[in-house]
């Protein structure tokens, strides 16, 4: 009774309800077709382009130049909208030289989790959409890149992408950025961990079909474009009117990189090609040795089976019971066919070094002819 009277007193103290009619309940309609493309919850829209923000470009170049080695790498952040993967931010991952692999992996994971948590706290993009890798002379084929990209394509929306930045091209004044992802055929062979000769033939895999390139474009905001425009425009100095001459100046200092013949780069490129060819010959020698060992073990097993069959035929002819067939795999340890993935990756490196050498040598040859013609004048 006390509780009832208290509730009644509370109800009486509240103001009387107004006579205004209640608002109608909200109705939910289907998502329009245009918004369905933007939302794309199930990632049904295929990825057609990668859009790289200008800030990300400068951060990757800065990290690659300041890194102690050419293995600078980091994570890419952003989102995918209407088939376009927009990369709006990035941060570098630490490089642990000389440490154990397990300790390096744990330290990198802790650093990644801390950075993502900090970005989330400041309301910044914290959605990982891939990673970037710095390389020299275009040779980015390695086991680490393949393993990391395979994990990203399994965990991330649209499979994630890897952006490769070539330091040697940037040193010559060309900012080289290319986006890649693993092909479906290679990913199928990778999941099965089978890179034997028959598997490569069935999947039609070569070093050129490991990765597929995704179109990439760089987006800059209007303010940055205006700033770059003011840097490139020439302006007259304060003494130009008094001196009666034209002393135009620019915000950017003069660059004489085009006068460099680039002979040092050609020498290094040739050294890398020779080293890659030696590695390929070593790998092929190891594969040949393992193949001969497998052939010997198989020949032993086949001879044993043939001998047992011949012996059983003799026993049947004598009216005796044939001997039971034994498991050959237990008697003879036939090794599995070796993986040829490392050979494919080394071939990809040789091809990249060769293409870089072709571009560098052709440019250097033109410059040498120009200097030779200029010296004769």
Shape: elongated
pLDDT averaged over residues: 76
Percent of sequence in beta strands: 15-25%
Rg, please? 33 Å
Which sequence of SSEs, written as H and E, runs from N to C?
HHEHEEHEHEHEHHEEHEHEHHH
Number of spatially distinct domains: 2
- The CATH fourth-level homologous superfamily of the largest domain: Cytidine Deaminase, domain 2
| Number of helices, counting only DSSP H or I runs of 4 residues or more | 13
According to CATH, what is the class of the largest domain? Alpha Beta
User: Which sheet architecture does the biggest sheet show?
Assistant: 8 strands, mixed
Structural class: alpha/beta
CATH fold assignment of the largest domain: Cytidine Deaminase, domain 2
The separation of the N and C termini measures: 117 Å
Q: State the low-pLDDT regions, or none.
A: 1-23, 25-29, 239-245
Family: Belongs to the eIF-3 subunit H family.
GO molecular function: metallopeptidase activity; translation initiation factor activity
Pfam family, one: eIF3h_C
Organism: Psilocybe cyanescens
Q: What does this molecule look like?
A:
By secondary structure, the protein is an alpha/beta fold. It folds into 2 domains: 49-225, Cytidine Deaminase, domain 2, CATH 3.40.140; 266-376. It is built from 13 helices and 10 strands. It has helices spanning 2-13, 33-39, 54-66, 101-121, 143-155, 167-171, 184-191, 197-203, 222-232, 240-243, 263-317, 328-331, 341-376, and strands at residues 49-53, 73-81, 84-92, 128-135, 161-166, 176-182, 211-214, 216-219, 234-236, 248-250. It has an 8-stranded mixed sheet. Strand 4 (128-135), helix 5 (143-155) and strand 5 form a beta-alpha-beta unit. The longest helix is centred in the C-terminal third of the chain and has 55 residues, at 263-317. The radius of gyration is 33 Å and the shape is elongated. The model is unreliable at 1-23, 25-29 and 239-245 (pLDDT under 50). Residues 1-22 form the signal peptide. This is Eukaryotic translation initiation factor 3 subunit H.
């Amino acid at each position: 009774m006390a509780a009832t009277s208290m509730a009644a007193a509370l109800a009486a103290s509240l103001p009387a309800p107004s006579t205004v009619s209640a608002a109608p309940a909200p109705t939910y309609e289907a998502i329009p077709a245009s918004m369905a493309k933007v939302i794309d919850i199930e990632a049904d829209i295929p990825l057609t382009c990668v859009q790289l923000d200008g800030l990300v470009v400068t951060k990757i170049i800065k990290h690659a130049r300041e890194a102690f080695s050419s293995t600078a790498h980091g994570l890419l952040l952003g989102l995918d909208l209407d088939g376009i993967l927009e990369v709006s931010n990035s941060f570098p991952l630490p490089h642990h030289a000389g440490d154990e692999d397990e300790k390096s992996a744990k330290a990198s994971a802790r650093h990644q989790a801390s950075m993502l948590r900090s970005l989330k706290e400041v309301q910044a993009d914290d959605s990982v959409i891939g990673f970037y890798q710095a390389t020299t002379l275009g040779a980015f084929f390695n086991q680490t890149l393949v393993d990391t990209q395979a994990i990203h394509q399994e965990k991330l929306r649209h499979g994630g992408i890897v952006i490769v930045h070539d330091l040697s091209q940037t040193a010559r004044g060309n900012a080289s950025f290319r986006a890649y992802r693993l092909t479906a055929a290679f990913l199928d062979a990778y999941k099965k961990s089978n890179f034997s000769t028959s598997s490569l033939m069935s999947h039609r895999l070569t070093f050129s079909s490991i990765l597929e390139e995704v179109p990439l474009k760089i987006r800059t905001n209007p303010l940055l474009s205006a700033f770059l425009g003011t840097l490139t425009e020439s302006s007259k100095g304060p003494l130009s009117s008094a001196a009666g001459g034209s002393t135009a100046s620019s915000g950017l200092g003069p660059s004489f990189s085009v006068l460099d013949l680039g002979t040092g780069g050609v020498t290094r490129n040739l050294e890398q090609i020779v080293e890659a060819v030696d590695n390929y010959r070593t790998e092929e020698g190891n594969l040949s040795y393992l193949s001969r060992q497998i052939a010997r073990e198989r020949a032993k097993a086949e001879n044993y089976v043939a001998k047992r069959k011949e012996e059983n035929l003799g026993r049947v002819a004598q009216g005796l019971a044939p001997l039971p067939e034994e498991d050959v795999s237990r008697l003879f340890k036939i090794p599995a066919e070796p993986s040829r993935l490392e050979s494919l990756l080394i071939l990809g490196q040789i091809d990249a070094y060769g293409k870089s050498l072709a571009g560098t040598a052709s440019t250097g040859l033109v410059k040498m002819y120009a200097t030779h013609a200029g010296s004769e004048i």
